[in-house]
Amino acid sequence: MKIYTKSGDEGNTHLIGKKVPKTDMRVEAYGTVDELNSLIGVTLIHLSDQHADIRKDLKKIQQELFDLGGDLANVTDRDTYYMQEAFITDLEDRIDVYWEESPPLERFILPGGQSGAAYLHQCRTVARRAERRIVDVAHEEQIPPAAIPYMNRLSDYFFSASRVVNVREGYEDTFYDASRNQPE
């Protein structure tokens, strides 16, 4: 079997159930989910064994994102989806654990710190973009009911995990201070 099919050479692709332009909102949505999944793979490289719990979470999240991508690529009438409400509950449980491990947050912080934490911040921003793309689809077509809440919670997860990585690695948060407050 060859990796190339040449079927997309004219700017179209196949969803499960119909052929669409590669710019179709569903393709944009699952493409952004796929981009996030790839970024998680990069993030895993930057997390030491000290963060085994987060590494375990991320590997599970990669599986869930693949499930979501499959759901988004399927336009056939469906009663069941791979994306489940339980995925949201699991994320909330992990967020609560990491939030307790981090110092209280009273100000906005800037992304950064240890490289793994910085990549988790980038995952957060890509998750937010994926969420916006999924919302676009939801305005026009049926999607898994858990998709938008999952993506919303996922960005919170990445934020919480990034802060924990920095705490464990001894990096302090860099607080946002409006440019207008900066000395010249």
From TrEMBL:
Domain Cobalamin adenosyltransferase-like: 3-165
Pfam family, one: Cob_adeno_trans
Protein EC: 2.5.1.17
SUPFAM superfamilies cross-referenced by the UniProt entry: Cobalamin adenosyltransferase-like
Catalytic activity: 2 cob(II)alamin + reduced [electron-transfer flavoprotein] + 2 ATP = 2 adenosylcob(III)alamin + 2 triphosphate + oxidized [electron-transfer flavoprotein] + 3 H(+); 2 cob(II)yrinate a,c diamide + reduced [electron-transfer flavoprotein] + 2 ATP = 2 adenosylcob(III)yrinate a,c-diamide + 2 triphosphate + oxidized [electron-transfer flavoprotein] + 3 H(+)
UniProt KW keywords: ATP-binding, Cobalamin biosynthesis, Nucleotide-binding, Transferase
GO molecular function, one term: corrinoid adenosyltransferase activity
Annotated metabolic or biological route of this protein: Cofactor biosynthesis; adenosylcobalamin biosynthesis; adenosylcobalamin from cob(II)yrinate a,c-diamide: step 2/7
GO biological process: cobalamin biosynthetic process
Top-level enzyme category: transferase
Keyword Endoplasmic reticulum: no
Database matches in InterPro entries: CblAdoTrfase-like, CblAdoTrfase-like_sf, PduO-typ
Family: Belongs to the Cob(I)alamin adenosyltransferase family.
Subunit structure: Homotrimer.
Protein's UniProt name: Corrinoid adenosyltransferase
Organism: Bacillus selenitireducens (strain ATCC 700615 / DSM 15326 / MLS10)
